[in-house]
Amino acid sequence: MIHKRKIILSLLFIKLLLILTLPLAAEEEHEEIFLSPSLSGTYLVPLGSFGEMADSGFGFQTNLQLTHFAFKNSALLLSGGINFINEKRDNIESLYVPYLSVSGGYVFPVYNNFTITPAIGFGYLWNIVKENVPGSEESVKSYFDPLLTIQCALNISLFKGFDLKITPEYNIFFEQDNTGSY
Question: What is the pLDDT of residues 139-158, one digit of tens each?
Fold first, then answer.
């Protein structure tokens, strides 16, 4: 029942994004779609109840950004990656978090080669927890949870085909009985 509710909420979110962007698409002139792939390192700090079991983490992320996909300066971001998280609890041997997300945003040109791109999106993450409980066998538990992501990319084009991008992000994932964030 809870998974059905998560799917319905995800579909409603997609519908809301479409409702918000389609009227803008009709008003703006359409420019050529620009494709921008990237690979980056990540650093995360778990917050709330997630922060009680996990310390900071690191990983990598691949991104594919389509600019002008629906209207001028619109951005569609497809992201995926994996984070390796330092665990706080003695019984947790390792914690890995692969994820995939799709976000929509708007590219604000600020000055010459500098842009700011706020975006909001959704996806799914997969928490893979390897536990060692004294007196029993090692166990691996996994949880597949919906994810809401909010980000704001700061981008400086250094030269053709090479950009420096810093993207602070806030992610909330929805477990069966709890929410976590980082």
Answer: 888 889 999 999 999 999 88
Please report which confidence band the pLDDT of residue 137 belongs to, taking 50, 70 and 90 as the band edges. Answer: confident
pTM (2 d.p.):
0.74
**Cβ(118)–Cβ(77) under 8 Å?**
no
Question: What is the token pair recorded at 57?
Answer: 């983490």
What is the model's pLDDT at position 114? 95
Give the pair of three-digit tokens for residue 65.
């950004």
Structure tokens at 54: 């996990």
Write out the two tokens for 23: 């009227």
Strand partners, 147: 123, 173
CA dihedral 87, 89, 90, 94 (to 10 degrees): -30
Q: Which residues contact 69 (CB under 8 A, 6 or more apart)?
A: 33, 75, 76
Tokens (6 digits) for 5: 């509710």
In DSSP terms, which residues pair with 65 in a beta bridge? 36, 77
